[in-house]
């Protein structure tokens, strides 16, 4: 299954990154993935009013936009995000780095880690960061039944509230894998906005602090949502220099919800535009299964 993920996500990315077809020349449907098996139908029907598959496409009239991979803002604002924790050693270390720089970030928490480290969750909130739902055990939700997805999100939702009293309003599906129907459904069920990313340093794969820093600095632009993982020591080790360099370039850090609140609709571009940078970066939108959360983790 793991080796199919790149194929699956290349296909998903191709679908989501495809330019909008001109009215007279509709784009052909993207080819079906050769290796990936189609997602089974959900156990129960999802609402028929699904959002378009293109995460960047405007929602249907009357529906609020609920999926973001970056924002369009006036000003040098970016959101730093940390996934898969909290981690017993690396997250407290990171919190100190953020506190020293008066930076607020967003933490996409895995439910079973929340249950293991509720005191760290309290500390994240006490320091002014945003917390969000990243599923209970980090599965690929896009191929699971509605009942299982509901269980993954509800258990985490409840664990976060139990740990710190804050109700999360945003979520990020592991590997970025969440169908348009699921996004619309989760928005209806929990009011969740689905948060993806436009900056991916591949820190889950390349465990090298210099690489993490270089990629983040190279890819970040105003409105960026920066993906990283505070469960990896190399990522946290990269943060002092990365954050200082971003600050030196004039970037200002806000939480994801703050960034979304600043989001402005993009004016339609005249004529054909060159393929945006996201065409390439979208292909990296999978967080491949290199960082699964083990069912039972030893205490650090
Ligand atoms: Zn993750």
Can you characterise this structure?
This protein is of the alpha/beta class and 300 residues long. The chain has helices spanning 5-17, 90-100, 111-116, 118-126, 146-164, 180-190, 209-219, 233-248, 256-261, 278-282; strands at residues 67-68, 77-83, 106-109, 130-133, 170-171, 193-195, 225-226, 252-253. The chain has a domain at 68-266 and 278-282: TIM Barrel (Alpha-Beta Barrel). The chain has 10 helices and 8 strands. The strands form 2 sheets. Strands 2, 3, 4, 7 and 8 form a 5-stranded parallel beta sheet that branches. The protein has a 3-stranded parallel beta sheet with strand order 1-6-5. Helix 6 (180-190) links the parallel strand 5 (170-171) and strand 6 (193-195). The longest helix has 19 residues, at 146-164. It is globular, with a radius of gyration of 19 Å. It starts with a helix and ends in an 18-residue tail after the last helix. Mean pLDDT is 79; it is low at 1-57, 275-286 and 288-300. It binds zinc ion. Zinc ion binds at residues 83-84, 134, 138, 174, 287. Zinc ion (ZN) is lined by residues 83-84, 134, 138, 174, 287.
């Amino acid at each position: 299954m793991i080796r199919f993920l790149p194929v699956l996500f290349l296909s998903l990315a191709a679908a989501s990154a495809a330019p909008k077809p001109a009215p007279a020349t509709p784009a052909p449907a993207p080819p079906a993935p050769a290796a990936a098996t189609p997602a089974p139908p959900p156990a129960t029907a999802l609402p028929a009013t699904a959002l378009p598959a293109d995460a960047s496409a405007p929602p249907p009239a009357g529906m609020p936009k609920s999926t973001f991979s970056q924002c369009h803002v006036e000003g040098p604002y970016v959101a730093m995000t940390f996934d898969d924790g909290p981690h017993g050693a690396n997250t407290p270390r990171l919190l100190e780095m953020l506190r020293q720089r008066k930076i607020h970030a967003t933490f996409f928490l895995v439910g079973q880690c929340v249950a293991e480290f509720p005191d760290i969750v309290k500390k994240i909130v006490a320091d002014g960061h945003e917390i969000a739902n990243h599923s209970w055990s980090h599965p690929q939700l896009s191929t699971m039944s509605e009942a299982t997805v509901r269980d993954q999100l509800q258990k985490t939702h409840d664990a976060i509230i139990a740990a710190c009293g804050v109700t999360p309003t945003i979520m990020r599906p592991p590997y970025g894998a969440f169908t348009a129907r699921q996004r619309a459904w989760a928005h209806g069920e929990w009011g969740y906005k689905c948060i993806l990313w436009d900056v991916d340093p591949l820190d889950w794969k390349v465990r090298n602090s210099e690489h993490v820093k270089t990629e983040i600095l190279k890819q970040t632009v105003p409105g960026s949502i920066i993906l990283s993982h505070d469960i990896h020591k190399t990522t946290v080790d990269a943060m002092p220099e990365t954050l200082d360099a971003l600050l030196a370039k004039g970037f200002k850090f806000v939480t994801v919800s703050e960034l979304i609140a600043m989001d402005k609709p993009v004016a339609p571009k005249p004529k054909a535009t060159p393929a945006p940078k996201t065409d390439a970066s979208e292909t990296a939108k999978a967080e491949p299964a290199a960082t699964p959360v083990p069912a039972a983790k030893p205490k650090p």
